[in-house]
Structure formats: structure tokens, C-alpha cells
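Many introductory courses stop at the sequence. We go one step further.
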Amino acid sequence: MALDMDKLNEFVGRFAGDLGATVAAGNVVVGHRLGLYQALAEGPATPEELARRTDTDPRYIAEWLRGQAAGGYIEVDPATETYSMTEEQVFALANPDGGIYMPGAFVLALGSLKSEDRLVDAFKTGAGIGWHEHDQDVFVGCEQFFRPGYIANLVPSWIPALDGVDAKLRAGARVADVGCGLGASTVLLAQAYPDSEFVGSDYHEGSIELARKRAADAGVADRVSFEVASAQTFSGRGYDLVSTFDCLHDMGDPAGAARHIRQSLASDGTWLIVEPAAADDLAGNLNPVGRIYYNFSTFLCVPNALSQPGGFALGAQAGEAAIRRVVTDAGFTRFRRATETPFNLVFEARP
């Protein structure tokens, strides 16, 4: 073999960055669980000072801080070994209610990786792994990953992008949030539209239990109810709005879900479909966002779809054309991309 050493060194450099990021993911989650980012956001600190703020061991804190600084997640003055955070780092790492909360994504990632041994077997057999079979951190991390984006976009921009939906919700509407998980989207909508009623559904009983608690803690339980039901069997008819957030591509039978949603809508109702940002072709997804979604999809989305009847396994990078086919084949006559973000495509479908 005649190796091009420049290309080899470039590839090894990419590997070193990936390996460092992989191990750093665990340290981000440690910082999340111990409140280290929030404590450092209070002001610059040496390892000893941050240890005192967080009631932790200074030797562990010193090593953690050095790794975070090496990765560019925090700042350091090497002369005094004093660490600090920029406003941007604080926003992304220390505020779970901001527009992005990076530690939540790492909680989800580490939780997903715990199924690695089962996934190896699934590769050999073609068997599925149901969402309910994953580690608890998958459910919690998924909420922590997606909720900040919903806070930043759902009420401020996604709902207003739908034709007439904001006015209906303000006047008082009936809403079904299908595949609601821990209920982050359901609760946010209920808080924004106090005259409307909401029903969240998910096939995973453990998620529904947490969703009920989230609604009670938010003070909206009088207008929000939850049921354990699949996207093909959730109850109710005449809904003004049905929403599916980042879940249609996970289903083994998205076509059956689409048909059931159409039947559950009022004649002038709307289906809000939020899906991961993706191009329709592989080449268009060979980028950092596509990399994130393809790798999550290998551990979570495709195995879950293959665990269910229906014959679909769209994956997280399904793209607009695939979603359009599912929707229009179910009898919806109007489908359009209403808006988008770097991480999501937002579609509007009507009967």
C-alpha cells in the first residue's frame, strides 16, 4: 500500500477530535448533574473555588475544568488557572430553558449508547428495539434535548406559521399532541393558550407518568390530560389541531398514524408535523447535522420502527419528500413546509 501521509494525518486528526468529544460527552453530563456549569456561570473561579461552590472534591474539579477548557467549552487563564464562561457558553451550557441546552443532548447520547450490545445483535438479526426498552436517560435526555428548541420556536414562530391556528388556539381549541413523550410540547402549548384543551398521548407508559407530573408542576393539569395510546389508536375526534413532534419517522406504521390523524381532525383542522431537518438525498445530509441524526437514528429511530408492525423505517433523515408521501397517501389534500430551523422542518397538513 502506498499511503498518502498527509491524508492519513488529516484522518487521524479527525479521529483524535472525535475521540476527545466522545469522552468529553460523559464529562458534560457530569457537569450537568452536579450543576458545575451553573456554578461557574456565577463568575470566574479556580478549581478550589468552584469545588467550594458546588460541595465537590477540588482534585476532580481541576481535571474536569482542564478537559472542558481543552475542548473550548469554558475559558481559562493558564497563568492563574482561573476558569470562566463566555455569555454564549452560559447560554448553551447553563440554561435548561434557553433556546439550546447542550448537556441534554449528551444525556440522550449516553443513554442511547447503553443499548450497544443489543444493537449489535439487532444488526445480525434485523430485530427491532422498542423505545420503551431503552435506558431511562433516553426518555429524560430526549426531553432535555428537544424542549429548549420548542421553547424558542413552538409558540413564537411555528404556530404563527400555520394558517389560522394561532387565532383558533387563542379562542379555545381542542388539541391532540401525539407521541408527546414527557409532555414538553403539550405543556408549553397549554401555558401559551389557556382557553384551549390538550390531550397528549404516547405508547410508553413511563413517559406518560412523567408527563402528568410535568403538567401538574406547571399548573396546567386542569386543561391537559394524557393517555397511554399509540399514534394509530389515540382517542378523540374533531380536533382543531393534531401535532407530532420529532416522532413520525420513528414509527413502524406512520401511514396508519397519518390515516388515524386525518380521521381525528375536524374538517378544517390542521396537522402540525415537526421532523428533523433533512434533505431528500444522501448527499444533502452529509454534514454535521446529518451526522448527528444518522447516528442517533441508528441507535433509536430505526430500531424502534423495526420493533413495530407496519413495514416502515424512515429514519431521522427521511426528508420532506418521504414525509409528503406518507401524508398525501393518507388522504390529506394540502401539505406544505411552513417554516424551518437548523435542526427541524415544520410542515402543515390539512384534510
